[in-house]
Amino acid sequence: xVGPDLRKPSARLLDWRPALPRPAVVAVLIGLLALVLAACxxxxxxxxxxxxxxxxxxxxxxxxxxxxxxxxxxxVFWIAVGVFVLVEGWLIWIVLRYRRRRGxxxxxxxxxxxxxxxxxxxxxxxxxVTGLFVGTVDKLGRIDRLVDQPDVVIDVIGFQxxxxxxxxxxxxxxxxxxxxxxxxxxxxxxxxxxxLQARDVIHAFYVPQFLYxxxxxPGRVNEFEVVxxxxxxxxxxxxxxxGLAHADMFFTVxxxxxxxxxxxxxxxxxxxxxxxxxxxxxxxxxxxxVDALTFEPESLTAQADVPIIFQFQNVDTLQPHxxxxxxxxxxxxxxxxxxxxxxxxxxxxxAPALPAGEYEFFCSIHPTTMRGILTxxx
Length: 378
Hints:
The protein has three domains: 22-101 and 114-143, Helix Hairpins (Orthogonal Bundle), CATH 1.10.287; 152-273, Immunoglobulin-like; 283-377, Immunoglobulin-like (Sandwich). The protein is of the alpha+beta class. 23% of the residues are buried. The strands form four sheets. It has a five-stranded mixed sheet with strand order 3-2-1-5-8. The protein has five helices and 19 strands.
């Protein structure tokens, strides 16, 4: 009979064998090294040159404030790399150097506590964290600094699921439509203050090339300033999940010279002040926007070859709306009633006469969620 194992616990401990044979361990280590080298190569290709490829570094910043973040990032990154290499390298060296070898039958001497090492591994991280804290506070002060007289002020309002850009000094207001969203024009090398707010839920204003994201919170105005360095076009989006059509909340920033910006403002003001043509004769249809999901009614009927006059009422207390019809233009583009109707207001939109058929009408500001059927009969 084989009796129970009565050896001491330390003797049983020495019977442990590694689960992986030595060649497999070497293969794993080589694989990890290859991953680290590949990641570093990707970082050099994408982030530091401002390319769009994957990498460990951010894209080249387009603003002065983004440059502050970009300057701090490599310091944090290389400190993290150094700590990782030191700690993981030390662990691997200890595992390999002090592993159990064939013929070992006693435990090595056990050391408990080492005042010198404990001071070192407490003091060094404390100094690193303190340095990073001081550098971060300094950078945040520069990034969040507001001047007394910014060159341009833009009120940005996020709502489900679109953006509104208001220029109070210029008397302009724009609401995005579809997946493209509105365009924010601003002059380069000038301080632009953005006053950010939300009408319904939390949204986030995010332009990747700005290296900056700020939340839009209902009932609160978040202010920040940017100075764009060079003319260009920069895509932006909502970066805080805000509901059903969150993925469609895009916008575009057009940075231009002061001369081009003045021309853009003048052109937009002329468009806004242009007298709309008088409403002609036609058939009147009443349509109500209830919220970001609902038209009332959702099914409409009209007579063919007669202009359609929409008596449009927006009872939504939060969001602007309008009405549009799919496939009306010669090239299949949609007809869109302009301008948009603010919350709690009414408007009149005159659509062209349509041949008999079935059409989809929708809100161009909420095209994913607000849709209905328009049946045009002979």
